[in-house]
Amino acid sequence: MQKKAINNKYYYLIIFSLFLGICAPTLWTDGMFMDGLFYASCAKNLANGLGEFWYPHLSKTLFPSFHEHPPLAIGLQSIFFYFLGESIYVERIYSLITFIICGFFIHLIWKEIVDNKYLYFSWLPIFFWIIIPLNSWSCSNNMLENTMSIFVCSSIYFSLKYHKENQVKHIFLAGLFIFLAFLTKGFTGIFPLSIFLWLFIFIRKDKKFKLLLNISLLFLFTIIPLILLYLFNYTAIESLTNYINIQVIKSIQEIETVENRFFIVKKLLLEILPIISLSTIILVIHWKNNNNIITVYKKWIYFFFSLAISGVLPIMVSMKQSGFYILTTLPYFCIGFGLLIVPNIYKYFNQINYKKIKIGSFILLTISIILSLSMYKKIGRDLHMISDIKLFMDIIPKNSTVSISSNRKIYNLTGYFARYGNISLDRKDQHVFHIEYIDEFKKERNKYNKINIETNLLYLFKRK
After folding, report:
1. From CA 69, how far away is CA 59, in angstroms rounded?
2. Are strands 401-404 and 424-426 parallel, antiparallel or unpaired?
3. How far apart are CA 283 and CA 308, in angstroms?
4. Which residue in 290, 336, 304 sits closest to 128, CA to CA?
5. Count of CB atoms situated within 10 Å of the CB of 440
6. Does the model's pTM come out above 0.90?
7. What single-letter DSSP state applies at residue 122?
């Protein structure tokens, strides 16, 4: 007879409070990584009727049609802007919600695997997940992977449900969610297509025909929505074709952002180093106290590690790599480590005073909320740039185009102007307002008068 599950509900509150506290200094302050800034600007514009779902719009001069990625996450975020307005907190609330949903799916996946007594220890892989530095960074910077992780987790969950119950509706949903992951950020979201291969290798040796059938069904239900788009929505196919040409083919053939293909593997090891270290410490302590290590879920551990690695290694095909490309694989490393650790810590949690845990969880939540509130209206990154732009917003009309003369890249500047006032930047000297970097300013321009406001990074001029 299985032991009754310990319902560790206050551990989940502790996990949420920890994550909120970790993210607070960057999540709730103004300033954002360029990519997330672009996505938020496109979503805000879409909510305001600028651009279309398949043709998101950033600015008149940079990405008037944004095809750097498929549009689903931008479309979903635009719903939040439509109902909540244009506050900088809209994309941040959206981002935090995506992590809460993803954490819930980690819990559901865990429940499909473990024995009854470990059901409510899903807080353990979720804890491992939130202490990975890349996750708090991604939450604070509105990355597309935040949304894609929900769809990837959903596909894994329904694939496991199909594996257990053999109901076609589950594999249909698994395929549909893989398609939605692709529609969020392309090919990095389709690695769950390999799940039945890993289940066959590590968990259950079905007949090879059954393996091929499962793989074929999953692929079929993933590809059917794309076929329907091809048949009935030319605009969608044109948009996705632009994405593949611009982002996929070009990145493989031309773009190099790293020195070697193993960058992504090194990044992965650095990100999961806290989990490896903590797991090693726990296992060493358990070994010293009990002279053994319990590995009841060894096959499942191999399964989840293999599944996660199958989402990392294909990134090495391209020399265009960034650390956040691995974000959607991290939950499965965490589940694997959780399955390794949970049998070795279970007995210690029978002895814990849960009244103290309850009190501690609410204290921690209170601290995290206070910390979050203290960030209100503060600027985090790009302090001088944001401060100057907000001064300019009182002078430059919204929806304007402003001239800029600079030899440096102006992507961040473009993103902030688009986000705050739908203002476009143009290197052509033909507009009412003109800006220059202070350190590039040499002499007054004949066409413009300098506007006398105290700034840190930029000068603003108005045509005479």
Report:
1. 16
2. parallel
3. 22
4. 336
5. 12
6. yes
7. T
